[in-house]
Design brief:
246 residues; Rossmann fold; alpha/beta; elongated; 10 strands; 8 helices; eight-stranded mixed sheet; 2 domains; two-stranded antiparallel sheet
Amino acid sequence: MQPLNTSEKAEALAEVMATLRARRDLISSDELTQRRSDHLTTEIPELDALLGGGFPMGPVVELARGRQSAGTAVALRLIQRLTTLGHLVALCDGGNAFDAETAARIGVDLDRLFLAQPPTLQAALRSTYALVTSGGFPLVVLDLGSLADRERPPSSSSWLRLARAAELAHVGLLVLGSERCTPGSFAGICLSPEGVRPQFSGRGRNRLFKGVELSLALTRNKLGIPPGRARLKLEAPLLEPPERAR
């Protein structure tokens, strides 16, 4: 095979660049200037330390559900802390499972929480994109809920569009999906609850469910954060008691 001459190399490079631009895989200099490594402090010391100083602004953070919906409980604790600190938070509740009464009991400031409950998976992605690009919320939470199991998973281009929007808007974006419906490679960080252990007070039949302890593992990241785990305590009513406690 004959080596390419200078003219042929230039033509080949131009063709590759055109293909990358058409697929929106090429990062422009304007987009690179928007990629800052700021963090939103949650004041949950273990979580802030695990994430390298706080919740990252820009990269998508994927959170697995885990046993007993532990991931959902972690997300609710995060919402509680940030609204208590005075931040506005948007929740796109794809499973229509948000319980305002429970949220208020654990200290969520409902006046600082914007709730959207779209009926379909595509509507949830569109709503999340609108919330991210609005510039009004430092944190947007997308909980795909039962929609992730009922409907066809979004295309890669849908996740890419949402990930780019979060980076350009410099917004924290937390996604709770399922095994078949996740941001995958478009997530900058992936967290997984492990070792969920129920906690009780008292003994015998009179014992009461207090909550759980769990380990939140940093299973994958593209931000250069050292791998690690955070041990968290989530008190009732953040989690439903296990069957044997009822």
